Amino acid sequence: MPEQQPYYGKNGEPKKYDPTFKGPIYNRGCTDIVCCILFIICILGYVAVGILAWSQGDPRKVIYPTDSRGQFCGQAGTPLETKPLLFYFNIMKCASPMVLLEFQCPTTQMCVEKCPDKFMTLLKAYTNKEDFKYYKNFCKEGLEGLTVTQILSSGLCPAMLTPSKPFTRRCFPALGQKKGGEITVGNNSKFDDGEGNIRDAKDLVAGVKNATVVIEARQVAMKIFEDYTQSWYWILIGLVIAMLISLLFIVLLRFLAGIMVWVMIVMVILVIGYGIFHCSMEYVSLKSEAGSNVTLKDLGFQTDFSVYLHIRQTWLAFIIILAIVEVVIILLLIFLRNRILIAIALIKEASRAIGYVMSALFYPLFTFALLSIVIAYWAVTAVFLSTSNQPIYKVFNETACDHSRKICEPANFSTSSMKAECPDSKCLFAFYGGETVYHKYLIGLQFYNVFLFFWCANFVTALGQMTLAGAFASYYWALVKPDDMPAFPIFSSLGRSLRYHTGSLAFGSLILSIIQIIRVLLEYIDHKLQGTQNKCTKFLLCCLKCCFWCLEKFIKFINRNAYIMVAIYGKNFCTSAKDAFFLLMRNMIRVAVLDKVTDFLLFLGKLLIVGLVGIFAFFFFSGRVKAFENTAPNLHYYWVPILTVVVGSYLIAHGFFSVYAMCVDTLFLCFCEDLERNDGSLARPYYMSASLHDILSENKAVEETEEPTQSSPHQPDDQHVQLKQ
């Protein structure tokens, strides 16, 4: 058989017409085998790290407070099961600056059944049998036959008790404030410290403040958790509504693409306009409210985010942001009106493709399930790794001591030389750590956990992209639809991707993961250097973060198109990435006209769904509508379920619309390849449909009005712009 003669593409690239090519090649081999083997080895190592972490870790260290002996308060199945609260012998010692450095209060801490509810000193309680019986609940064992002096010198009891309330499973003085601003504890402004001194209640404030420095965030977290327990079913209802709206929107796009796109554009403009109107009304209504003119800078950070909604500057910021978004969208619609018509035609073609591959609409559920497994494995492993340290005890003392803050052993501390040299010192639990080889490399294991999380998550995303690309490519390259298509395009494409191209998927996701982990390290370095005033360092970090952000976006773009080429031709990742990149560069104007404008329209669809569900969630959870006042749950922060519903709605809408986006990208790349492979003649017919012919005709007209093209010396232009026979 004589060698096939090459013909020349539009830009002079030699091509060979392959009459047997009918879409994704089935006779293919494995690609990027080395990276596949590396990925499998790393996954096995990841499993080993998880097993090691689960064998060494103890999540109880996060759940339960720890006393001075390193025991967990309230742990089920232990003698402390009935003692869930942590009690501080002398909360005022927590005012020491060392608390902020070591996150540990230098006073004895023990587990108790309930917090003290009255004032009492050991000196007075010792003389009353009933009072002393009550006092013993907050003392260690071994008080029999000891005097008050001996008890205090041995550190078996606190010198005093103050009325306290439990907070995050810890007993803190029940501080209050009178109208004049005077601090009280148990409704008293003064108290006996047990050493014969009458002190002001305000002396307790510094101790309480430092003692809670580590757990202030936990208070907010607990309130948020309570809000979730009160509103989780309403959140689920909101997410179900978002899913139904997204599904309805996709179905309507299938049959009424042109109408739905214009309806979507108008509704987005109206929703944003309503947001501007509502924010303006709130801004005006706060004009007469006292304290509403405070600036956000003066207010500072508040854990109660509802405070910001009572500040006029907050609503002014919302108005400005929404107005800018509205103006940008309107200007884009005005200047891109011709291209939007072309993009709508491409969306119609994508709708037809999805009509033949309806199972693609539900594939994001499979991707979501795999990502949930990856995220759950990473989170559980991270918790077990962070809790796999051993309890570390240190010497705490009130007077000068050479052994202060040194590591000690509580079992033999009373007979040790440290105790002999520092009689008033105590060996108390400080934190969790360790000096073994495992503990020394614990930070490395955490880093490995984060890196494999990025790699696995990107691999799952890449698998979804290649699977959808293979399914939609089989639609495009079928001359007779659906007869020339596989019976189950999604399952066929998924099988090919896993069987032959696991290495290519791992290669592309590895490159992206390396860039993402570098971005994480840059953010960590930036966080550590926040206190520095070196402007050069800040500028350098800012430039690095910006560059790697752009690089990540570029790699995602390259990977996405490379996976499409791998799904079609079965070549390795680098070859596919190169072919996809140069194919897109040869069709740069078409990329802007068709692909990116279509992405913009699909983004407006996501924005519309999020806006509709978000507005409904706002009026429901905030109680602004009287009809929902008795139905909506009572919450600490009503923004918690609103934000959850908004983020969840975006993810759901993104999942559905990502199918459309992948379909458009695949059809576009196949479209460009079809133009260079074929010329529309009987010998080399186009595989594109008649509607895509029309899209190209309109696109060509737009190109010619914007930028005249020069003819290739190898091939006349009219042969390539001829679309219909």
From TrEMBL:
Record Pfam families: Choline_transpo
GO molecular function terms noted in the UniProt entry: antiporter activity
Membrane disposition: Multi-pass membrane protein
Reactions mediated catalytically: ethanolamine(out) + n H(+)(in) = ethanolamine(in) + n H(+)(out); choline(out) + n H(+)(in) = choline(in) + n H(+)(out)
Tagged with keyword Transmembrane helix: yes
Sequence ranges of Basic and acidic residues compositional bias: 715-725
Main location: membrane
Membrane-spanning residues: 31-54, 232-253, 259-277, 315-336, 356-385, 450-478, 498-522, 600-623, 635-653
Stretch list, region Disordered: 701-725
One Gene Ontology CC term in the entry: plasma membrane
Location within or outside the cell: Cell membrane; Mitochondrion outer membrane
Swiss-Prot/TrEMBL keywords: Antiport, Cell membrane, Glycoprotein, Membrane, Mitochondrion, Mitochondrion outer membrane, Phosphoprotein, Transmembrane, Transmembrane helix, Transport
Function (record text): Choline transporter.
PANTHER family xrefs: CHOLINE TRANSPORTER-LIKE (SLC FAMILY 44) (PTHR12385), CHOLINE TRANSPORTER-LIKE PROTEIN 2 (PTHR12385:SF34)
Family: Belongs to the CTL (choline transporter-like) family.
Protein name: Choline transporter-like protein
Organism: Oncorhynchus tshawytscha (Chinook salmon)
